[in-house]
Amino acid sequence: MNKAGADQYSKKSGRSMNDILKIEDLTVEYRSGKRHIHAVNNLDLEVGEGEALGFVGETGAGKTTTALSILRILPDPPAKVLGGRVMFKGQDLFRLSEGEMRQIRGEEIAMIFQDPMTSLDPVKTVGDQICEMILLHRHCTRKEAWKQAGDMLETVGIERDRAGDYPHQFSGGMKQRVVIAIALSCNPSLLIADEPTTALDVTIQAQILELMKNLKKKYQSSMIMITHDLGIVAEICEKVAIMYAGGVLEYGNVFDIYKNPRHPYTHALFDSIPDVNRDQERLKVIAGLPPDPANIPSGCPFHPRCPYCTRQCETEKPEKEYLSDTHWVKCFRAPVRGEEPS
Known about the structure:
Elements: H1 3-13, E1 19-32, E2 35-48, E3 52-56, H2 63-71, E4 79-88, E5 91-92, H3 98-104, E6 109-112, H4 116-119, H5 126-137, H6 142-155, H7 172-184, E7 190-194, H8 202-219, E8 222-227, H9 230-236, E9 239-244, E10 247-253, H10 254-259, H11 264-271, H12 311-315, E11 321-322, E12 328-329
Parallel strand pairs: 3-8, 3-9, 6-7, 7-8
Antiparallel strand pairs: 1-2, 1-4, 4-5, 9-10, 10-12, 11-12
Helix pairs in contact: 5-6, 5-7, 6-7, 7-8
């Protein structure tokens, strides 16, 4: 299916009308003196209502910059949004005033940051920090907010009588639960989780992921899960976006990406995962290094590392090729649906 066909399908099905978030042609760069870092390049992305999107890519791909752009909390300077739109529930967030954005942050869109150790204020009790979010967005008394804070702690598996404790009295996993409680305290429509289990050990990671999965179902929130871990995406998400050098190279539902990957970079990511069912002396790695964001290659950004690179890949940027109504890829060598990758 070509782009026109996919657009026609979207209009007939009403799929685009169900998108809670739609990013169009987003471009962001960081400026340091004469050096311009191209962090996000002409990014297009959609997240549906009640849907979880896995945002996957190597370090420096632009995942966190995209998330901060949605909330409009990029450091300015050095970050600068050069173009594009971020449509949330039909309104362009870039056109809202700062006062209007403050109402959206926390109430409509909340974010779980990467490191729970630095996300919490060390001189305030965890109950006070949850209350602060509730009082900012809800018309209630402090007594009512404190009760809601206790309810949220119990929701994430912490006894309510610990609301008076300080962050240093909690383990890493417990701190992350508190951060999740703060993020969900106003029942946001969209939750952005930026590698929420990075600083935790494997056992606690599993507990946090199970908690987030259950809370997503309970609150019917949409979610963007930023991660390096394809296993986490398979466990939690319905849709997947494979990001590289500031743009999405392949997008589809979990079945599309895991059972029918089409971009060479997506194949390389899966090949680099250890297979417990096979004896392997060495792990497969992706040749080369991610590009310098200050000097993105011409043509397809992956072409210097791609085993299928052609002259066309070096000079022309591939457009979206729709393989189905749920699956697109940016690659000149991506076969049509039903064929095996070359």
